[in-house]
Amino acid sequence: MKASSLALDLLDLFLPRGCLGCGARLPPEEPQDLVCVRCRTLLRSPAPPRCLRCDVPLGTGQPVGATCLECADWPEILAFARAAVVMEPPADALVHALKYGGWRSLGEMMGRRMATVCPPVGGDPVVVPLPTTSRRRRMRGYNQARVLAEVVARELGVALVEALDRPSGGTQVRSGPRERRSNVHGSFRVIPSSRSRFRGLEVILIDDVLTTGATALSAASALGEKGAKSVRLLTFARALPFGAEGRRTPLN
Ligand SMILES: [Zn+2]
Ligand SMILES: [Zn+2]
């Protein structure tokens, strides 16, 4: 562990603070808690019935087991996606705290939630974190997907393989879905020394949030080209598309 991340972990332990979901003061007798009981209760799964493949809520009256237009153009290699919670308060604050706030230890609770929604995998799967660019990892000190992947791999009892890297690519915060799709195409590289560790196997691809799926599609395709049998995507949160559960604003 680097000295700087050790110092941050020590600060985590000793600084008085509020809940990372809502800011409410946390009970001092439980200093290890980062999220209050109310916020934990508010975290919820996407409402059923959901698309069998991409997990998006289909709306009432739809048959269980149907699929949807959101994932109709996903490549075959990406078998399905599952998310632990809907990307709405307080989940968005937790994602932000892990990704930008340096709250690495929050990954433990988030990763455990993810492991509980991962359907059983036959054979000998591997967990692969979605990489961030090396510049962003240096700024933050860690890759949030890797933090989550470590917890998921441990909870599921499977190996973690850092099979991908991302040599370039700018921030995508301001781009729309179409721009994102073209931006991320081809932006992942399969690390040659990792190939023998996932060839012919099911890959559980880990990221913090599924928004348009463009990033995951690109990574899944790269893994498929190098021999992965199939890829499933497991994220902490799912940003719901326009219209799902009454959502009134499109994703950006
Ligand atoms: Zn809270
Ligand atoms: Zn779908």
Describe the structure.
With 252 residues, the chain is of the alpha/beta class. It contains 9 helices and 7 strands; from the N terminus they run H-H-E-H-H-E-H-H-E-E-H-E-H-E-H-E. The protein has helices at residues 3-14, 37-42, 91-99, 107-116, 134-140, 144-156, 177-184, 195-198, 214-225; strands at 78-86, 126-129, 159-160, 164-165, 189-190, 202-210, 230-238. It has a 5-stranded parallel β-sheet with strand order 1-7-6-2-3. The protein has a two-stranded antiparallel ribbon with strand order 4-5. Strand 6, helix 9 (214-225) and strand 7 form a beta-alpha-beta unit. It starts with a helix and ends in a 14-residue tail after the last strand. Bound molecules: zinc ion (ZN) (2 copies). One zinc ion (ZN) is lined by residues 19, 21-22, 24, 35-36, 38-39, 90.
In short:
The chain is built from 9 helices and 7 strands, in the order H-H-E-H-H-E-H-H-E-E-H-E-H-E-H-E.
Fraction of residues in helix: 25-40%
Q: What is the CATH class designation?
A: Alpha Beta
β-strand percent reads 5-15%
Tell the overall outline. Answer: globular
Number of domains: 1
Task: Please report the number of helical segments.
Answer: 9
Query: What is the element string, with H for helices and E for strands?
Result: HHEHHEHHEEHEHEHE
Strand order of the largest sheet: 1-7-6-2-3
- The tally of beta strands, per DSSP, is 7
